[in-house]
Design brief:
- This protein is of the alpha+beta class.
- It has helices at residues 92-103, 126-137, 156-161, 198-208, and strands spanning 31-33, 59-61, 67-69, 77-83, 108-114, 176-179, 185-189.
- Strands 1-7-6-4-5 form a 5-stranded mixed β-sheet, covered by helices on one side.
- The longest helix is centred in the middle third of the chain and has 12 residues, at 92-103.
- The protein is globular and about 40 Å long.
Length: 210
C-alpha cells in the first residue's frame, strides 16, 4: 500500500539589501515623502535596531541635562534636525527658528540634535552649544544633548529615522526629518534643502492639515 503522507513544500525568499551608494555632502538635494512601515518585519526595517515605529516612544537627554520624552510632542508636527556649530550650514539655525515662530502656535516644533559625526564640527559641550544657539541665533525650540546620528553607535531614534525612504545614513549636518502628529516620519530632506525652501514649507503645511 502506498504511503499517502502529505507533501510539504518549503519556499525560501531572499530579500536583497539596498546597497545604493550615498551621495556626497555637497550639492545634495533629496526629498522623499513617505509613510514609515509600522512593523519591524518590513523589508525596509532593521529589526536589531528598529524598536519602534513612533518617535514618541523615545526619551532623550535635553541640552540642559534633563530627561524628556518625545511623547510630550504627541499630536504635533515635528522637524528633527541634526545640528552643528561649526558647519557651513550652521546659519540654518536662523531659518529653523523662523519656522518655529511661523508654525509653532499651530502645533509644530523644531527639535535640534547636536552631533559631532561630520567633520568634528560640533566639538562644544552641551552648555556651550546652548549658549551659542541662543545668543547668536535666538533659538527657542527644544535642543537635546549631543548624540551620534550615524554608524553603529547611532542613537536608536536615528536608527528609526534613517529607515525613512530613501533609506540610508544621515549624510551631513542639518539633515531634516519631518514627523507627523502620530510620531511617524513622513518626509526627509538633505542639508541643501534650507528651512526657507518652498517644498519644506509645503510639507509642513500639509502635515498640519492645511
Amino acid at each position: 500500500m502506498l504511503n499517502k503522507s502529505p507533501l510539504v513544500v518549503v519556499t525560501l525568499a531572499l530579500v536583497a539589501c539596498d546597497t545604493t551608494p550615498t551621495a556626497s555632502k555637497d550639492n545634495t538635494r533629496v526629498t522623499a515623502v513617505v509613510d514609515l512601515p509600522t512593523s519591524p518585519a518590513s523589508p525596509q526595517a532593521a529589526p536589531e535596531k528598529l524598536v519602534s515605529a513612533s518617535v514618541h516612544d523615545f526619551t532623550l537627554e535635553t541640552i540642559d541635562g534633563a530627561q524628556r520624552s518625545l511623547g510630550d510632542f504627541r499630536n504635533k508636527v515635528l522637524l528633527l534636525v541634526n545640528t552643528a556649530s561649526e558647519c557651513g550650514y550652521t546659519p540654518q539655525y536662523e531659518g529653523l527658528e523662523k519656522l518655529q515662530m511661523t508654525y509653532g502656535a499651530r502645533g509644530f516644533s523644531v527639535l535640534g540634535f547636536p552631533s559631532n559625526d561630520f567633520g568634528g564640527q560640533e566639538p562644544r559641550s552641551n552648555k556651550a552649544i546652548k549658549a551659542f544657539c541662543t545668543t547668536k541665533f535666538g533659538v527657542t525650540f527644544p535642543m537635546f544633548a549631543k548624540i551620534a546620528v550615524k554608524g553603529p553607535a547611532k542613537h536608536p531614534l536615528y536608527a528609526l529615522l534613517v529607515q525613512t525612504p530613501p533609506a540610508g545614513e544621515v549624510k551631513w549636518n542639518f539633515n531634516k526629518f519631518l514627523v507627523g502628529k502620530n510620531g511617524r516620519a513622513i518626509a526627509r530632506f538633505d542639508s541643501g534643502v534650507t528651512p526657507e525652501a518652498a517644498e519644506l514649507a509645503s510639507a509642513i503645511s500639509k502635515a498640519l492639515g492645511d
